[in-house]
Amino acid sequence: QELRPKSLDIKQEELGDMVEKEMASTSEAIEDAVRRIEEMMSQARNESSGVKLEVNERILNSCTDLMKAIRLLVTTSTNLQKEIVESGRGAATTQEFYAKNSRWTEGLISASKAVGWGATQLVEAADRVVLHTGKYEELIVCSHEIAASTAQLVAASKVKAEKSSRNLARLQECSRNVNEMAANVVASTKSGQEQIEEKDTMDFSGMSLIKLKKEEMETQVKVLELEKRLEGERVRLGELRKQHYVLAGGCEDTPEDGEARPAPAPRRGILKKPPIAQKP
């Protein structure tokens, strides 16, 4: 008992209540997110027009579809958890089952929190983008976070579920749907960003040769500065992920040996620096 990870400062008998509360809280957060998106849609139609309105509507529609997919995922996950408890508790009570499988329960609670948090962050990022106070990249990152937390919830549920469970099959299907909707948010965000940036096309036709040369040199300096900053941020991201996996590793459970292992670090995309044109 002393060697068990103290990841949650609650009594074992309270774990069952925590699961129900977290799932209910997640559902409530998603419902609130859907309402906020509808409000943003109405506000965008009143305050914007043309290309900006088209971009905002496309992004918010994709966010709405994602929230609906997450809502179905949470509902299906709740049904699967009930099935797992009913089939595995025997003569024990629900609270005793959760207490006996406390590490699995803690993983379930953590996954549920991650899904709800991701949905909230996505809506806040969308709100800032519509108000032109945020960055499109924030929406993309939030979409990736939701896909990751969805995989975490499915993995936590799959540990105790029967392979032939219909609810498990439905949950996996919901997970694929969430990933597809998250990819749609990323696609609509990127296309919207490009569409907005195309409005501000760079016109250098009126510049003199000296002015062009100066602008070219200043841009090269900025490129070098950004490349150096990008490399530093990559190192920082790697260290943050290492620490995240160390802390999260104590809460994870596996169906085979029961040992906690950190999740594998996601592979970085291969980003090649564009060659700088050489002067003759």
Helix and strand element order: HHHHHHH
Count of discrete alpha- or pi-helical segments spanning 4 or more residues = 7
- Which CATH class of the domain at 14-197 applies here? Mainly Alpha
State the helical fraction.
over 70%
Low-confidence stretches: 254-260
> What is the CATH architecture annotation of the domain at 14-197?
Up-down Bundle
Report on the structure:
The protein is built from 7 helices and no strands. Residues 254-260 have low confidence and may be disordered. With 280 residues, it is mostly helical. It has a domain at 14-197: I/LWEQ domain. The relative contact order is 0.11. It is 74% helix and 0% strand. The radius of gyration is 24 Å and the shape is elongated. Residues 250-280 are annotated as: Disordered. Keywords: Coiled coil, Cytoplasm. Residues 7-248 form the I/LWEQ domain.
